[in-house]
Amino acid sequence: MTTLLNVIQNALFEINAYSPGETISAEDANLCLSKANRLFDSWNASKIFVYAVNFAQYNMIAGHNPLTIGQGVNITSVSAAGLVATYTAVNNYQVGQFISTTGNGVIGGVNFDQTNVIVTAANGTSFTLACGAGTVSTTTVTGTAIVANSPSTAFPDIAISSTRPIKIVNANIILNQGTGATTVRTPVAIEDADWWANQRVPLIQTDLPKHLYYQPSYPNGQMFLWPIPNVTYPLEIETWTNLSGLGLTDTFTLPPGYEDAVTYTLAETLCPSFSKTIDQTLVALARNARALIQGNNSAALRITTADLGLPKGERTRPYFNYLVPADLTGGR
Predict the structure, then answer these.
(1) 220-253 confidence digits (pLDDT tens)
(2) pTM for the full model?
(3) Per CATH, is 73-155 categorized as 2.40.30.40?
(4) Where are the domains positioned within the chain?
């Protein structure tokens, strides 16, 4: 099992900052962790690093526009010991991130709601925050949490485990769901900012919206449906798959080719931090590793022609196949 720490160690070995068998200091490990997660964040902004798309369904809210979407989790329980509160939930939170929580419950005399509190520890299912004084037993609560430098009121309408989508590729409204029913997808056209700015009647309502403009604001993206839905049908959206941030001990689980691309690229970015000169062999290895995954993620454009093929003429090729050399066409 490969962890992110293993990848970091290999990157440091590549630039001779450490030798195999040496223990990486906590300070260096945390610096490399920050650089690795910044690398993932920058790759999320480029389609050629996106290895898949997601199809997920969320319920629309009647009479509500825009629908906000962003990172959040459902909290199942909270326990407190002294000044530390432990929240149990499926999460991707990391040490040092800011959390704003909202929900119902009291921990040690302090409200469950907290704004902009730093995560002090985290793993795959829980995270801990500083809380008020007092010690209580485990308390079952219903609530939510969000990673954001904003008040808890910024919790999104649609909570997802990763950061808000970079882009919405396609959207459908799902009809006729249920046991034995035939699912019907009604397409929703994806529009741009100019289309939304020119919409003269933005508040009109209908049962089936026909258009969607997505504004990738942060920390929550905003989906403007038009006309505004007055029925809570499921909305299916297709989005790019984000590369999630990792902790040092988290398992590195990405498709084939990504481990080399991350290792060599991270090694390049670490050279200035460790006063190392970037070796040209490393540059070539990183470039080739990135090209491998970029090639897999870049689909070839579809080629089409007018009517049934390319027209013939005195100054055009007489063959439909554009690959036929010009000297085989009689010079025409």
Answers:
(1) 899 999 999 999 999 999 998 888 778 788 889 8
(2) 0.69
(3) no
(4) 4-49+242-297, 53-69+160-240, 73-155, 304-332
